[in-house]
Each structure stands twice: as C-alpha cells, then as structure tokens.
C-alpha cells in the first residue's frame, strides 16, 4: 500500500503533537513546520520509522525572512526522500534573527555536514553540535554573511554593468 500524506501527518501529530504544524501539500511535496528545538527528534523519527522510511536527505538550506517577527527571521529547510515509495517531504524550522542557531542533523545524515556548513557560511546559522562548523566557500576572514537580505547584491558604484541585461530596469524604456 502506498504511503499517503495523511498517514505521515497522523504519525507525526501522534508522536509530536503541536510541535509539528502547518501541514500543506505543494504539488508533489508534502510540507510542514516543526518547532526548532524538536528538529533532530522529528528527522530521526522520519528516518527510523518502519513505515515512513525517509532515509535520504536531499537538501538542507537556509532562508532569510527579514520582515518576519524576530523569532522567525531565519528558516532551515530540510528535504527528505523515501525511495521505497518515491515520496518527498519538506520540513521548515524557523529560528531567531538575533541568535540563529539550531541543532545539527549531521549525526543522523552524514551528507548534511557540508550543507550545514554552507548555510552557516552564507546565512550565519549556527548548527549546534556540528563537528567542524566553518566557512566552506567564502574566505575565513569574511565577517558578513552574503545571503542575508541586508548584504548588498553588488557594488552600487560599478559602471561596467548595465542592469537592463540582467532583467532589472530602473526606468521604462
């Protein structure tokens, strides 16, 4: 019998109660939010449950929402895949803008090691318990986090680029 989204939701709610919420079907991906302090327990449950079997972490990334309230300014997004049933899910955990940190899942999925380092490098999200959390693509000396919305896209003084060629126009032509 195929794994249905209502079965995933029922198992999660029965185990974690109100710590999992905002269930939604977005095209072929079932998504939900989880309280940030429960993320490792939820992911471990999804991986080890004999029916759910989400054994593959497809992606982990950060998102910056500067207009959200302070406690929801960053999100860590996890994409998991059940290869047996070809079912994919997306999990969002929102974290504080003042101190963006969340527990690592590198002890559950080894592949998350570099993904968490990338989220740290670009967003400044601290993954508590990560074995080697340091920059992975930017210079170690860099003090800012370039994927945060307050980081300028490019030098405003540049004259060698014409915004029209990049889909950005400043006036109607």
TrEMBL record:
It is found in: Cell membrane. It is an enzyme of class 7 (translocase). It is a peripheral membrane protein. Keywords: Cell membrane, Membrane, NAD, Oxidoreductase, Quinone, Translocase, Transport. It catalyses: a quinone + NADH + 5 H(+)(in) = a quinol + NAD(+) + 4 H(+)(out). Its EC number is 7.1.1.-. Residues 33-155 form the NADH:ubiquinone oxidoreductase 30kDa subunit domain. InterPro entries: NADH_DH_suC, NADH_quin_OxRdtase_su_C/D-like, NADH_UbQ_OxRdtase_30kDa_su, NADH_UbQ_OxRdtase_CS. PANTHER family: NADH DEHYDROGENASE [UBIQUINONE] IRON-SULFUR PROTEIN 3, MITOCHONDRIAL, NADH DEHYDROGENASE UBIQUINONE IRON-SULFUR PROTEIN 3. NDH-1 is composed of 14 different subunits. Subunits NuoB, C, D, E, F, and G constitute the peripheral sector of the complex. Belongs to the complex I 30 kDa subunit family. NCBIfam families: NuoC_fam (TIGR01961). This is NADH-quinone oxidoreductase subunit C.
């Amino acid at each position: 019998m195929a794994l249905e989204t209502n079965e995933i939701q029922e198992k999660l709610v029965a185990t974690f109660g109100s710590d999992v919420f905002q269930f939604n079907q977005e095209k072929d991906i079932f998504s939900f939010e989880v309280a940030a302090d429960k993320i490792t327990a939820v992911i471990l449950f999804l991986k080890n449950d004999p029916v759910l079997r989400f054994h593959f972490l497809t992606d982990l990334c950060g998102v910056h929402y500067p207009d959200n309230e302070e406690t929801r300014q960053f999100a860590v997004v996890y994409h998991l895949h059940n290869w047996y049933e070809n079912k994919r899910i997306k999990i969002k955990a929102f974290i504080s803008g003042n101190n963006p940190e969340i527990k690592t899942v590198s002890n559950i999925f080894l592949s998350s090691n570099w993904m968490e380092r990338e989220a740290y490098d670009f967003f400044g999200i601290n993954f508590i318990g990560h074995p080697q959390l340091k920059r992975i693509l930017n210079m170690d000396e860099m003090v800012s986090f370039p994927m945060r919305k307050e980081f300028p896209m490019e030098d405003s003084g540049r004259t060698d680029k014409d915004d029209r060629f990049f889909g950005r126009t400043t006036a109607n032509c």
